[in-house]
Amino acid sequence: MTDFELIKMPFDQESIITWSLSNAIARDWPVVYLLSDDKSVYVGETKSATKRFYQHLAHEKKKHLSQVGIILNEKFNRSVCTDLESKLISLFSADGKHKVLNANAGMASGNYYQRDEYRDSFNEIFEILVNDGLLSRPASEIINSNLFKFSPFKALNVDQEIALSEIIKRLSTDAEANQGSQLIVQGEPGTGKTIVAIYLIKLLRDIAQMSIDDLSDQDSIFADFFSSEYAELFENMKIALVVPQQSLRETIEKVFAQTPGLDKSMVLTPFEVAKSEMHFDLLIVDEAHRLGQRANQSSAMLNKQFTEANIKLFGIDDKTKTQLDWIETKSTHQLLLLDPEQSVKPGDLPLTITHEIINTAKNDSRLFQLVSQMRIKGGNDYLNFVNKLFSDSPALKRDFNGYDLRFYDDFESMRNDILYLNEEVGLSRLLAGFAWKYKSKKNPDLYDIDIDGHQLRWNQTVKDWVNSPNSVNEVGSIHTIQGYDLNFAGVIIGNDLGYDPINQKIVFNRNCYFDAKGKENNKVLGVKYSDDEILQYVLNIYRVLLTRGIKGTFVYVCDLELRKLISARMSLKA
Predict the structure, then answer these.
(1) Statement to judge: residues 318 and 204 lie in one domain
(2) Which residues share a beta bridge with 368?
(3) Deepest of 292, 348, 383, 447, by most Cβ within 10 A of its Cβ?
Protein backbone atom coordinates (compact mmCIF):
# COMPACT_ATOMS: atom_id res chain seq x y z
CA MET A 1 0.00 0.00 0.00
CA THR A 2 3.03 2.28 -0.32
CA ASP A 3 4.18 4.76 -2.98
CA PHE A 4 2.19 7.73 -1.84
CA GLU A 5 2.82 11.02 -3.56
CA LEU A 6 2.08 14.54 -2.35
CA ILE A 7 1.71 17.03 -5.21
CA LYS A 8 1.72 20.69 -4.16
CA MET A 9 0.79 23.72 -6.22
CA PRO A 10 -0.72 27.18 -5.79
CA PHE A 11 -4.47 27.19 -5.26
CA ASP A 12 -5.46 29.28 -8.25
CA GLN A 13 -7.23 28.75 -11.57
CA GLU A 14 -4.12 28.77 -13.73
CA SER A 15 -2.34 26.10 -11.69
CA ILE A 16 -5.40 23.88 -11.62
CA ILE A 17 -5.86 24.12 -15.39
CA THR A 18 -2.20 23.30 -16.03
CA TRP A 19 -2.27 20.30 -13.70
CA SER A 20 -5.59 19.05 -15.05
CA LEU A 21 -4.46 19.10 -18.68
CA SER A 22 -1.46 16.90 -17.95
CA ASN A 23 -3.05 14.47 -15.46
CA ALA A 24 -5.91 12.14 -16.27
CA ILE A 25 -6.18 11.47 -12.55
CA ALA A 26 -7.56 14.99 -12.18
CA ARG A 27 -10.77 14.00 -13.92
CA ASP A 28 -11.51 10.45 -12.81
CA TRP A 29 -9.57 8.96 -9.88
CA PRO A 30 -10.13 9.11 -6.12
CA VAL A 31 -7.75 11.44 -4.31
CA VAL A 32 -7.42 13.11 -0.93
CA TYR A 33 -6.48 16.79 -0.93
CA LEU A 34 -5.55 19.62 1.41
CA LEU A 35 -6.34 23.30 0.86
CA SER A 36 -4.31 25.49 3.19
CA ASP A 37 -2.60 28.71 4.09
CA ASP A 38 -0.53 29.56 7.18
CA LYS A 39 -3.55 29.54 9.49
CA SER A 40 -6.25 27.28 8.02
CA VAL A 41 -6.68 23.92 6.34
CA TYR A 42 -9.53 22.15 4.58
CA VAL A 43 -9.34 18.37 4.00
CA GLY A 44 -11.37 16.72 1.26
CA GLU A 45 -11.68 13.64 -0.91
CA THR A 46 -13.09 13.40 -4.41
CA LYS A 47 -13.02 11.31 -7.58
CA SER A 48 -13.23 14.46 -9.73
CA ALA A 49 -10.47 16.73 -8.50
CA THR A 50 -10.68 19.46 -11.15
CA LYS A 51 -14.42 19.95 -10.71
CA ARG A 52 -14.09 20.00 -6.93
CA PHE A 53 -11.25 22.55 -6.95
CA TYR A 54 -13.29 24.94 -9.10
CA GLN A 55 -16.16 24.66 -6.61
CA HIS A 56 -13.80 25.59 -3.78
CA LEU A 57 -12.33 28.54 -5.69
CA ALA A 58 -15.83 29.99 -5.92
CA HIS A 59 -16.53 29.44 -2.22
CA GLU A 60 -16.33 32.54 -0.04
CA LYS A 61 -14.73 30.76 2.95
CA LYS A 62 -12.06 28.96 0.93
CA LYS A 63 -11.01 31.24 -1.91
CA HIS A 64 -8.41 32.88 0.38
CA LEU A 65 -6.51 29.59 0.76
CA SER A 66 -3.22 29.70 -1.10
CA GLN A 67 -2.02 26.13 -1.57
CA VAL A 68 -3.40 22.75 -2.59
CA GLY A 69 -1.75 19.46 -1.72
CA ILE A 70 -2.98 16.34 -3.53
CA ILE A 71 -2.30 12.91 -2.01
CA LEU A 72 -2.08 10.23 -4.70
CA ASN A 73 -1.83 6.46 -4.69
CA GLU A 74 -2.68 4.10 -7.54
CA LYS A 75 -4.37 1.75 -5.06
CA PHE A 76 -6.76 4.38 -3.70
CA ASN A 77 -10.50 3.71 -3.83
CA ARG A 78 -13.40 5.76 -2.48
CA SER A 79 -13.60 3.88 0.84
CA VAL A 80 -9.88 4.34 1.48
CA CYS A 81 -10.08 8.03 0.65
CA THR A 82 -13.01 8.75 2.97
CA ASP A 83 -11.23 6.87 5.77
CA LEU A 84 -7.98 8.79 5.20
CA GLU A 85 -9.91 12.05 4.99
CA SER A 86 -11.43 11.36 8.42
CA LYS A 87 -8.04 10.54 9.94
CA LEU A 88 -6.45 13.70 8.54
CA ILE A 89 -9.27 15.96 9.73
CA SER A 90 -8.88 14.49 13.24
CA LEU A 91 -5.11 14.97 13.21
CA PHE A 92 -5.19 18.54 11.91
CA SER A 93 -7.90 19.57 14.38
CA ALA A 94 -5.87 18.25 17.35
CA ASP A 95 -2.49 19.41 16.05
CA GLY A 96 -3.51 23.04 16.47
CA LYS A 97 -1.20 24.50 13.83
CA HIS A 98 -4.14 25.16 11.48
CA LYS A 99 -7.82 25.76 12.05
CA VAL A 100 -9.86 23.10 10.30
CA LEU A 101 -12.50 24.60 7.99
CA ASN A 102 -14.46 21.40 7.38
CA ALA A 103 -18.10 21.26 8.35
CA ASN A 104 -18.85 18.58 10.91
CA ALA A 105 -21.44 16.77 8.85
CA GLY A 106 -20.24 13.28 9.73
CA MET A 107 -17.07 11.35 9.07
CA ALA A 108 -16.51 7.88 7.64
CA SER A 109 -15.71 5.00 9.99
CA GLY A 110 -16.95 1.96 8.06
CA ASN A 111 -15.14 -1.25 7.27
CA TYR A 112 -13.74 -2.06 3.84
CA TYR A 113 -11.46 -4.57 2.13
CA GLN A 114 -7.93 -4.60 3.63
CA ARG A 115 -8.73 -1.70 5.93
CA ASP A 116 -6.06 -2.60 8.50
CA GLU A 117 -3.37 -2.76 5.82
CA TYR A 118 -4.42 0.59 4.38
CA ARG A 119 -4.51 2.18 7.82
CA ASP A 120 -1.00 0.96 8.57
CA SER A 121 0.15 2.59 5.36
CA PHE A 122 -1.41 5.92 6.36
CA ASN A 123 1.56 6.41 8.71
CA GLU A 124 3.69 7.06 5.63
CA ILE A 125 1.35 9.90 4.62
CA PHE A 126 1.39 11.37 8.12
CA GLU A 127 5.20 11.36 8.09
CA ILE A 128 5.24 13.11 4.69
CA LEU A 129 2.95 15.83 6.06
CA VAL A 130 5.16 16.31 9.13
CA ASN A 131 8.29 16.60 6.98
CA ASP A 132 6.47 19.04 4.71
CA GLY A 133 5.49 21.21 7.69
CA LEU A 134 1.74 20.82 7.32
CA LEU A 135 1.59 18.87 10.60
CA SER A 136 3.72 20.25 13.42
CA ARG A 137 4.51 16.92 15.15
CA PRO A 138 4.32 13.15 14.64
CA ALA A 139 0.88 11.55 14.50
CA SER A 140 1.67 9.39 17.56
CA GLU A 141 2.10 12.52 19.68
CA ILE A 142 -1.07 14.11 18.35
CA ILE A 143 -3.12 10.96 19.02
CA ASN A 144 -1.89 10.90 22.63
CA SER A 145 -3.12 14.46 23.22
CA ASN A 146 -6.40 15.29 24.91
CA LEU A 147 -7.12 17.74 22.10
CA PHE A 148 -7.28 14.70 19.80
CA LYS A 149 -9.64 12.86 22.12
CA PHE A 150 -12.03 15.78 22.57
CA SER A 151 -11.92 17.13 19.02
CA PRO A 152 -15.40 17.38 17.44
CA PHE A 153 -13.96 15.99 14.22
CA LYS A 154 -14.55 12.33 14.95
CA ALA A 155 -15.87 9.27 13.18
CA LEU A 156 -18.76 8.23 15.41
CA ASN A 157 -19.99 4.76 16.28
CA VAL A 158 -23.56 3.69 15.57
CA ASP A 159 -24.77 4.45 19.11
CA GLN A 160 -23.51 8.01 18.87
CA GLU A 161 -24.88 8.58 15.37
CA ILE A 162 -28.35 7.41 16.40
CA ALA A 163 -28.30 9.47 19.61
CA LEU A 164 -27.20 12.65 17.82
CA SER A 165 -29.76 12.25 15.04
CA GLU A 166 -32.59 11.75 17.51
CA ILE A 167 -31.42 14.61 19.72
CA ILE A 168 -31.43 17.03 16.77
CA LYS A 169 -34.89 15.85 15.73
CA ARG A 170 -36.19 16.31 19.29
CA LEU A 171 -34.64 19.76 19.63
CA SER A 172 -36.10 20.91 16.33
CA THR A 173 -39.56 19.53 17.13
CA ASP A 174 -39.57 21.19 20.56
CA ALA A 175 -38.22 24.45 19.16
CA GLU A 176 -40.95 24.53 16.51
CA ALA A 177 -43.57 23.87 19.18
CA ASN A 178 -42.02 26.57 21.38
CA GLN A 179 -41.72 24.20 24.32
CA GLY A 180 -38.85 23.29 26.61
CA SER A 181 -37.32 19.84 26.89
CA GLN A 182 -34.83 17.75 28.81
CA LEU A 183 -32.87 15.00 27.05
CA ILE A 184 -30.59 12.45 28.70
CA VAL A 185 -27.56 10.61 27.33
CA GLN A 186 -26.54 7.75 29.62
CA GLY A 187 -23.41 5.68 29.22
CA GLU A 188 -20.71 3.89 31.18
CA PRO A 189 -17.04 4.97 31.16
CA GLY A 190 -15.52 5.03 27.69
CA THR A 191 -18.77 5.16 25.71
CA GLY A 192 -18.06 8.68 24.41
CA LYS A 193 -20.53 10.91 26.24
CA THR A 194 -18.26 13.96 26.14
CA ILE A 195 -17.62 13.46 22.42
CA VAL A 196 -21.39 13.50 21.81
CA ALA A 197 -21.66 16.83 23.67
CA ILE A 198 -18.85 18.57 21.78
CA TYR A 199 -19.80 17.04 18.44
CA LEU A 200 -23.40 18.20 18.84
CA ILE A 201 -22.44 21.81 19.50
CA LYS A 202 -20.14 21.90 16.48
CA LEU A 203 -22.80 20.21 14.32
CA LEU A 204 -25.52 22.67 15.36
CA ARG A 205 -23.20 25.57 14.60
CA ASP A 206 -22.34 24.15 11.17
CA ILE A 207 -26.01 23.56 10.33
CA ALA A 208 -26.77 27.16 11.28
CA GLN A 209 -24.00 28.36 8.95
CA MET A 210 -24.63 25.66 6.38
CA SER A 211 -22.83 25.54 3.08
CA ILE A 212 -24.02 23.26 0.29
CA ASP A 213 -20.46 23.38 -1.02
CA ASP A 214 -19.22 21.59 2.08
CA LEU A 215 -21.61 18.70 1.45
CA SER A 216 -21.68 18.40 -2.32
CA ASP A 217 -18.98 15.75 -2.56
CA GLN A 218 -19.46 13.60 0.49
CA ASP A 219 -21.82 10.98 1.84
CA SER A 220 -22.73 12.75 5.06
CA ILE A 221 -24.29 10.98 8.01
CA PHE A 222 -26.15 14.14 8.96
CA ALA A 223 -26.68 15.62 5.49
CA ASP A 224 -30.48 15.73 5.91
CA PHE A 225 -30.10 18.32 8.67
CA PHE A 226 -28.23 20.73 6.41
CA SER A 227 -31.33 22.44 5.11
CA SER A 228 -32.72 25.95 5.28
CA GLU A 229 -35.42 24.82 7.72
CA TYR A 230 -32.95 23.43 10.26
CA ALA A 231 -30.54 26.31 9.67
CA GLU A 232 -33.26 28.82 10.54
CA LEU A 233 -34.16 26.93 13.73
CA PHE A 234 -30.57 26.77 15.00
CA GLU A 235 -29.23 30.06 13.58
CA ASN A 236 -29.52 32.18 16.72
CA MET A 237 -29.55 29.37 19.28
CA LYS A 238 -27.62 30.32 22.42
CA ILE A 239 -25.68 27.22 23.46
CA ALA A 240 -23.15 26.47 26.20
CA LEU A 241 -21.39 23.39 27.53
CA VAL A 242 -21.39 23.12 31.32
CA VAL A 243 -18.39 21.23 32.73
CA PRO A 244 -18.54 20.75 36.53
CA GLN A 245 -14.99 19.32 36.76
CA GLN A 246 -12.21 21.89 37.01
CA SER A 247 -9.51 19.50 35.76
CA LEU A 248 -11.31 18.87 32.47
CA ARG A 249 -12.70 22.33 31.77
CA GLU A 250 -9.48 23.99 30.60
CA THR A 251 -8.76 21.17 28.14
CA ILE A 252 -12.20 21.52 26.56
CA GLU A 253 -11.79 25.29 26.42
CA LYS A 254 -8.65 24.76 24.31
CA VAL A 255 -10.61 22.55 21.90
CA PHE A 256 -13.32 25.18 21.54
CA ALA A 257 -10.76 27.96 21.06
CA GLN A 258 -9.23 26.30 17.98
CA THR A 259 -12.46 25.02 16.41
CA PRO A 260 -14.17 27.35 13.89
CA GLY A 261 -17.69 28.21 14.99
CA LEU A 262 -16.92 27.54 18.65
CA ASP A 263 -15.40 29.74 21.34
CA LYS A 264 -13.97 28.94 24.76
CA SER A 265 -16.51 31.34 26.29
CA MET A 266 -19.11 28.65 25.50
CA VAL A 267 -17.57 26.40 28.21
CA LEU A 268 -18.97 27.31 31.63
CA THR A 269 -19.02 26.26 35.26
CA PRO A 270 -22.40 25.81 36.97
CA PHE A 271 -21.67 28.99 38.95
CA GLU A 272 -21.03 30.95 35.73
CA VAL A 273 -24.38 29.74 34.37
CA ALA A 274 -26.17 30.98 37.48
CA LYS A 275 -24.41 34.37 37.33
CA SER A 276 -25.01 34.92 33.62
CA GLU A 277 -27.54 37.51 32.52
CA MET A 278 -28.23 35.38 29.44
CA HIS A 279 -31.05 32.86 29.14
CA PHE A 280 -29.73 29.93 27.14
CA ASP A 281 -31.66 28.06 24.49
CA LEU A 282 -29.64 24.91 25.15
CA LEU A 283 -27.36 23.94 28.02
CA ILE A 284 -25.43 20.71 27.62
CA VAL A 285 -24.02 19.34 30.88
CA ASP A 286 -21.11 16.95 30.73
CA GLU A 287 -20.77 14.54 33.68
CA ALA A 288 -24.11 15.84 34.98
CA HIS A 289 -23.92 13.45 37.95
CA ARG A 290 -21.08 15.71 39.21
CA LEU A 291 -23.40 18.71 39.54
CA GLY A 292 -23.57 19.75 43.18
CA GLN A 293 -26.24 19.87 45.81
CA ARG A 294 -26.23 22.31 48.70
CA ALA A 295 -23.39 21.29 50.99
CA ASN A 296 -20.25 22.80 52.47
CA GLN A 297 -18.29 23.91 49.40
CA SER A 298 -14.54 23.73 48.99
CA SER A 299 -14.14 27.40 49.95
CA ALA A 300 -16.00 30.14 51.82
CA MET A 301 -16.27 32.07 48.55
CA LEU A 302 -18.14 29.20 46.85
CA ASN A 303 -20.48 28.88 49.83
CA LYS A 304 -21.29 32.56 49.41
CA GLN A 305 -21.76 32.15 45.65
CA PHE A 306 -24.13 29.20 46.14
CA THR A 307 -26.30 31.38 48.39
CA GLU A 308 -26.18 34.30 45.96
CA ALA A 309 -27.11 32.04 43.00
CA ASN A 310 -30.15 30.68 44.82
CA ILE A 311 -31.36 34.16 45.80
CA LYS A 312 -30.85 35.48 42.27
CA LEU A 313 -32.67 32.61 40.58
CA PHE A 314 -35.38 31.75 43.12
CA GLY A 315 -35.78 34.87 45.27
CA ILE A 316 -34.73 33.05 48.45
CA ASP A 317 -31.86 30.83 49.53
CA ASP A 318 -33.77 27.57 49.16
CA LYS A 319 -31.28 25.00 50.45
CA THR A 320 -33.04 22.15 48.65
CA LYS A 321 -32.09 23.62 45.28
CA THR A 322 -29.24 21.93 43.39
CA GLN A 323 -27.06 23.07 40.53
CA LEU A 324 -29.37 21.08 38.26
CA ASP A 325 -32.16 23.46 39.31
CA TRP A 326 -29.92 26.32 38.18
CA ILE A 327 -29.41 24.66 34.78
CA GLU A 328 -33.14 24.08 34.32
CA THR A 329 -34.01 27.67 35.32
CA LYS A 330 -31.43 29.23 33.00
CA SER A 331 -32.26 27.26 29.83
CA THR A 332 -35.15 26.26 27.62
CA HIS A 333 -33.61 22.92 26.64
CA GLN A 334 -31.18 20.75 28.55
CA LEU A 335 -29.07 17.81 27.45
CA LEU A 336 -27.62 15.93 30.44
CA LEU A 337 -24.83 13.41 29.93
CA LEU A 338 -24.51 11.19 32.96
CA ASP A 339 -23.64 7.90 34.60
CA PRO A 340 -24.85 7.63 38.21
CA GLU A 341 -22.19 4.99 38.91
CA GLN A 342 -19.50 7.68 38.42
CA SER A 343 -20.75 9.84 41.29
CA VAL A 344 -17.77 9.99 43.66
CA LYS A 345 -18.74 12.08 46.70
CA PRO A 346 -21.81 12.89 48.82
CA GLY A 347 -21.90 16.48 47.57
CA ASP A 348 -22.65 15.31 44.03
CA LEU A 349 -26.21 15.31 42.71
CA PRO A 350 -28.16 12.83 44.87
CA LEU A 351 -28.72 9.43 43.29
CA THR A 352 -32.45 9.78 43.91
CA ILE A 353 -32.46 12.75 41.54
CA THR A 354 -30.30 11.17 38.82
CA HIS A 355 -32.38 8.01 38.80
CA GLU A 356 -35.58 10.03 38.72
CA ILE A 357 -34.54 12.09 35.68
CA ILE A 358 -33.36 8.93 33.90
CA ASN A 359 -36.68 7.18 34.51
CA THR A 360 -38.67 10.25 33.45
CA ALA A 361 -36.67 10.56 30.24
CA LYS A 362 -37.05 6.86 29.52
CA ASN A 363 -40.83 6.99 29.90
CA ASP A 364 -40.93 9.98 27.54
CA SER A 365 -38.57 8.42 24.95
CA ARG A 366 -35.99 11.11 25.69
CA LEU A 367 -33.29 8.77 27.01
CA PHE A 368 -30.43 7.85 24.66
CA GLN A 369 -28.07 5.12 25.82
CA LEU A 370 -24.50 4.63 24.67
CA VAL A 371 -23.29 1.05 25.05
CA SER A 372 -20.38 0.62 22.62
CA GLN A 373 -16.98 0.82 24.31
CA MET A 374 -14.77 3.39 22.59
CA ARG A 375 -11.93 3.84 25.07
CA ILE A 376 -10.92 0.45 26.39
CA LYS A 377 -9.48 -2.21 24.11
CA GLY A 378 -10.95 -4.83 26.45
CA GLY A 379 -14.45 -3.71 25.52
CA ASN A 380 -17.64 -4.30 27.45
CA ASP A 381 -16.39 -7.64 28.80
CA TYR A 382 -13.62 -5.83 30.67
CA LEU A 383 -16.04 -3.16 31.88
CA ASN A 384 -18.34 -5.88 33.23
CA PHE A 385 -15.35 -7.49 34.97
CA VAL A 386 -14.47 -4.20 36.69
CA ASN A 387 -18.08 -3.51 37.68
CA LYS A 388 -18.24 -6.89 39.44
CA LEU A 389 -14.70 -6.99 40.84
CA PHE A 390 -15.76 -5.68 44.27
CA SER A 391 -19.18 -7.37 44.35
CA ASP A 392 -20.35 -10.62 45.90
CA SER A 393 -20.53 -12.22 42.45
CA PRO A 394 -17.28 -11.37 40.60
CA ALA A 395 -16.95 -12.12 36.90
CA LEU A 396 -14.34 -14.50 35.54
CA LYS A 397 -11.25 -13.03 33.94
CA ARG A 398 -11.13 -13.39 30.16
CA ASP A 399 -8.67 -12.52 27.43
CA PHE A 400 -10.51 -9.20 26.92
CA ASN A 401 -9.35 -8.94 23.31
CA GLY A 402 -5.70 -8.89 24.34
CA TYR A 403 -6.19 -6.15 26.94
CA ASP A 404 -3.14 -5.98 29.24
CA LEU A 405 -4.57 -6.57 32.72
CA ARG A 406 -2.00 -7.38 35.42
CA PHE A 407 -2.04 -7.85 39.18
CA TYR A 408 1.09 -7.02 41.18
CA ASP A 409 2.26 -8.24 44.57
CA ASP A 410 5.20 -5.86 44.36
CA PHE A 411 4.58 -2.13 43.97
CA GLU A 412 8.08 -1.34 42.68
CA SER A 413 7.58 -3.70 39.74
CA MET A 414 4.31 -2.01 38.79
CA ARG A 415 5.85 1.45 38.98
CA ASN A 416 8.83 0.41 36.86
CA ASP A 417 6.53 -1.08 34.23
CA ILE A 418 4.51 2.16 34.08
CA LEU A 419 7.71 4.21 33.69
CA TYR A 420 8.92 1.90 30.91
CA LEU A 421 5.62 2.01 29.02
CA ASN A 422 5.51 5.78 29.31
CA GLU A 423 8.84 5.88 27.48
CA GLU A 424 7.56 3.44 24.86
CA VAL A 425 4.02 4.67 24.10
CA GLY A 426 3.42 7.66 26.38
CA LEU A 427 0.40 8.46 28.58
CA SER A 428 1.15 5.86 31.25
CA ARG A 429 0.47 7.05 34.80
CA LEU A 430 -0.03 5.93 38.40
CA LEU A 431 -3.46 6.54 39.94
CA ALA A 432 -4.76 5.95 43.46
CA GLY A 433 -7.71 6.28 45.75
CA PHE A 434 -7.51 9.17 48.24
CA ALA A 435 -5.93 6.99 50.94
CA TRP A 436 -3.02 9.31 51.83
CA LYS A 437 -2.91 12.87 53.17
CA TYR A 438 -2.08 15.58 50.63
CA LYS A 439 0.88 16.97 52.61
CA SER A 440 2.73 18.27 49.54
CA LYS A 441 -0.12 20.64 48.75
CA LYS A 442 1.15 23.05 51.40
CA ASN A 443 4.78 21.94 51.39
CA PRO A 444 6.04 20.68 47.99
CA ASP A 445 9.16 19.29 49.65
CA LEU A 446 7.11 16.67 51.49
CA TYR A 447 6.03 13.29 50.13
CA ASP A 448 2.44 12.07 50.42
CA ILE A 449 2.45 8.39 49.58
CA ASP A 450 4.73 5.74 51.07
CA ILE A 451 4.39 2.17 49.81
CA ASP A 452 7.02 -0.32 50.92
CA GLY A 453 9.56 2.50 51.26
CA HIS A 454 8.76 4.06 47.88
CA GLN A 455 7.81 7.69 48.37
CA LEU A 456 5.69 9.62 45.88
CA ARG A 457 3.70 12.83 45.69
CA TRP A 458 0.12 13.46 44.70
CA ASN A 459 -0.53 15.40 41.51
CA GLN A 460 1.02 18.86 41.85
CA THR A 461 -1.54 20.42 39.55
CA VAL A 462 -5.29 19.92 39.12
CA LYS A 463 -5.76 21.29 35.61
CA ASP A 464 -4.79 18.86 32.84
CA TRP A 465 -2.51 16.91 35.21
CA VAL A 466 -2.14 14.04 32.74
CA ASN A 467 -0.12 16.25 30.39
CA SER A 468 1.85 18.17 33.03
CA PRO A 469 5.66 17.77 32.76
CA ASN A 470 6.24 15.71 35.92
CA SER A 471 3.00 13.72 36.02
CA VAL A 472 4.73 10.40 35.28
CA ASN A 473 6.56 10.77 38.62
CA GLU A 474 3.39 11.65 40.53
CA VAL A 475 0.14 9.90 41.43
CA GLY A 476 -3.18 11.15 40.10
CA SER A 477 -6.41 11.18 42.07
CA ILE A 478 -10.02 10.88 40.95
CA HIS A 479 -10.23 14.68 40.82
CA THR A 480 -7.56 14.92 38.12
CA ILE A 481 -8.28 11.84 36.01
CA GLN A 482 -12.07 11.56 35.65
CA GLY A 483 -12.90 12.19 32.01
CA TYR A 484 -9.35 11.57 30.78
CA ASP A 485 -7.77 8.64 28.92
CA LEU A 486 -4.43 6.93 29.43
CA ASN A 487 -2.66 4.26 27.41
CA PHE A 488 -1.75 2.36 30.60
CA ALA A 489 -3.01 2.99 34.14
CA GLY A 490 -1.28 1.68 37.25
CA VAL A 491 -4.00 1.71 39.91
CA ILE A 492 -3.10 1.68 43.60
CA ILE A 493 -5.98 0.50 45.80
CA GLY A 494 -5.17 2.12 49.13
CA ASN A 495 -6.05 1.26 52.70
CA ASP A 496 -9.34 3.13 52.40
CA LEU A 497 -10.59 -0.27 51.24
CA GLY A 498 -10.03 -3.47 53.19
CA TYR A 499 -11.44 -6.96 53.48
CA ASP A 500 -13.05 -8.51 56.55
CA PRO A 501 -12.33 -12.26 56.18
CA ILE A 502 -14.60 -13.18 59.10
CA ASN A 503 -17.72 -11.51 57.68
CA GLN A 504 -16.38 -11.99 54.14
CA LYS A 505 -17.05 -8.48 52.90
CA ILE A 506 -15.16 -5.50 51.55
CA VAL A 507 -15.13 -2.67 54.08
CA PHE A 508 -14.48 1.07 54.10
CA ASN A 509 -11.79 2.37 56.46
CA ARG A 510 -12.79 5.95 57.29
CA ASN A 511 -9.51 6.68 59.10
CA CYS A 512 -7.57 5.89 55.93
CA TYR A 513 -9.68 8.05 53.61
CA PHE A 514 -8.38 11.62 53.35
CA ASP A 515 -10.73 13.31 50.88
CA ALA A 516 -12.49 15.63 53.32
CA LYS A 517 -15.35 16.36 50.93
CA GLY A 518 -15.62 12.68 50.14
CA LYS A 519 -16.74 11.69 53.63
CA GLU A 520 -18.09 14.95 55.07
CA ASN A 521 -21.60 14.97 56.55
CA ASN A 522 -23.99 17.50 55.05
CA LYS A 523 -24.66 19.87 57.94
CA VAL A 524 -26.59 22.26 55.70
CA LEU A 525 -29.23 19.62 54.94
CA GLY A 526 -28.78 17.72 58.20
CA VAL A 527 -27.61 14.49 56.53
CA LYS A 528 -25.09 12.07 58.05
CA TYR A 529 -23.39 9.46 55.88
CA SER A 530 -22.65 5.99 57.17
CA ASP A 531 -19.54 3.98 56.32
CA ASP A 532 -21.62 1.79 54.00
CA GLU A 533 -22.86 4.86 52.13
CA ILE A 534 -19.34 6.28 51.74
CA LEU A 535 -18.14 2.82 50.67
CA GLN A 536 -20.30 3.06 47.54
CA TYR A 537 -18.65 6.34 46.54
CA VAL A 538 -15.17 4.91 47.14
CA LEU A 539 -16.01 1.83 45.04
CA ASN A 540 -17.24 4.17 42.29
CA ILE A 541 -13.88 5.96 42.46
CA TYR A 542 -11.96 2.73 41.94
CA ARG A 543 -14.25 1.69 39.09
CA VAL A 544 -13.42 4.99 37.38
CA LEU A 545 -9.67 4.56 37.98
CA LEU A 546 -9.76 1.01 36.63
CA THR A 547 -11.37 2.21 33.38
CA ARG A 548 -8.86 4.92 32.38
CA GLY A 549 -6.41 2.67 30.51
CA ILE A 550 -6.96 2.26 26.77
CA LYS A 551 -4.44 -0.55 26.32
CA GLY A 552 -3.99 -1.89 29.81
CA THR A 553 -4.55 -1.61 33.56
CA PHE A 554 -2.17 -2.69 36.32
CA VAL A 555 -3.39 -3.22 39.91
CA TYR A 556 -1.65 -3.13 43.29
CA VAL A 557 -3.59 -3.49 46.57
CA CYS A 558 -2.22 -2.17 49.88
CA ASP A 559 -4.45 -4.03 52.36
CA LEU A 560 -3.08 -7.57 52.71
CA GLU A 561 -6.44 -9.35 53.09
CA LEU A 562 -7.97 -7.40 50.19
CA ARG A 563 -4.84 -8.12 48.14
CA LYS A 564 -5.42 -11.83 48.58
CA LEU A 565 -9.07 -11.47 47.54
CA ILE A 566 -8.45 -9.32 44.45
CA SER A 567 -5.48 -11.45 43.41
CA ALA A 568 -7.66 -14.55 43.56
CA ARG A 569 -10.48 -12.89 41.62
CA MET A 570 -8.08 -11.70 38.93
CA SER A 571 -6.65 -15.22 38.63
CA LEU A 572 -9.98 -16.93 37.97
CA LYS A 573 -10.09 -17.42 34.22
CA ALA A 574 -13.10 -18.32 32.12
Answers:
(1) yes
(2) 185
(3) 348
